[in-house]
Write a structure and sequence with these properties.
The protein is α/β, with parallel strands linked by helices and 277 residues long. The chain has one domain: Ribonuclease Z/Hydroxyacylglutathione hydrolase-like (Metallo-beta-lactamase, Chain A). 22% of the residues lie in helices and 26% in strands. It has seven helices and 17 strands. It has a seven-stranded mixed β-sheet. Strands 9-10-12-13-14-15-16 form a seven-stranded mixed β-sheet, covered by helices on one side. Strands 7-6-11 form a three-stranded antiparallel β-sheet, with no helix packed on it. The radius of gyration is 17 Å and the shape is globular. The termini are close together. Bound molecules: fe (ii) ion (FE2) (2 copies).
């Protein structure tokens, strides 16, 4: 099966005139035959605008996949349902838990879903939730919960389950989407809170193959220390990935590092970027 993957929402924009950036991520997955899937929705600020500029018909989207329950990936769900009607939505059962970013100063911001499960269901959401690695369409898999096996991927310590910041949030619902293509495995990341290497190793174990062609999306490397970045770069080298298309929570410094370490493989994930596989 051939696919076209187009980034609809991202922090920055490419050269496509009139598109807009926002802190968020969304990608449209169009198969050669059949209906497209929407992977994440951004905050809902730029989804419709950018899709129109890119001449993408979102009404044709068959179902939505949510990488995790942060606002910058799920904020477009309610406007999508209001515009296009009921849809199946794939995700993890912990999508709806409360979440906060708590700064060292004690300042706390709610960063979970901006609509409740009941509001989304009233608007036509039919949730299909699982913690397991599973095939949701021919050649399309969701990782389910990703085991945190690497010693160096320590997660984002600023994320908490409670407003006061006592209970760390490991973002257990974080999952990525896998396309098995003729060119190899393509991995779509939301924020990859589970860790990039943890996620790649989990997919390799579940599929029994490790021919990764591309990773595309947010790596969360912008929130890790230099030691983790060093080890991630070394581990990526051994995997031989052909395209590393990173953006969103990768951040400027980590993107520069990846660009330096992988000059042929690295591409900046931006609104308008299209991958054909
Ligand atoms: Fe994010
Ligand atoms: Fe996130």
């Amino acid at each position: 099966m051939k696919w076209r993957v187009s980034i609809l929402c991202e922090n920055s924009v490419g050269p496509l005139a009139g598109t807009l950036g926002e802190h968020g991520f969304s990608a449209l997955l169009e198969p050669e035959n059949g209906s497209p899937l929407l992977f994440d929705t951004g905050q809902g600020l730029t989804l419709f605008h950018n899709a129109a500029r890119m001449k993408k018909d979102l009404s044709a989207v068959d179902s939505l996949v949510l990488s995790h329950g942060h606002y910058d990936h799920t904020g477009g769900v309610l406007p999508f349902l209001d515009s296009y009607g009921p849809r199946s939505i794939y995700g993890h059962p912990s999508l709806f838990m409360p979440r906060y970013r708590v700064k060292d100063t004690g300042e706390s911001t709610s960063i979970g879903l901006s609509a409740s499960r009941a509001e989304l269901e009233a608007a036509g959401a039919s949730f299909d939730l699982s913690t397991e690695f599973r095939e949701i369409a021919p050649g399309v898999f969701l990782t389910g919960e990703v085991p945190r096996t690497s010693a160096f991927e320590t997660g984002d310590r600023g994320l908490c389950c409670d407003e006061a910041g006592y209970e760390p949030d490991v973002t257990v619902d974080d999952q990525s989407l896998v396309l098995v293509t003729e060119k190899g495995i393509v991995l779509l990341l939301g924020c990859c809170h589970a860790g990039l290497i943890n996620t790649l190793e989990h997919v390799a174990l579940c599929l029994g193959r490790r021919d990764f062609y591309a990773v595309i999306g947010g790596t969360h490397l912008g929130f890790c220390d230099q030691r983790q970045l060093d080890k991630t770069s070394k581990a990526l080298r051994t995997l031989g990935i052909k395209k590393i298309i990173a953006g969103h929570c990768t951040g400027f410094a980590a993107a520069c590092r990846l660009s330096h370490d992988f000059p042929k493989e690295f591409h900046l994930a931006q609104v308008g970027y299209t991958l054909e596989v």
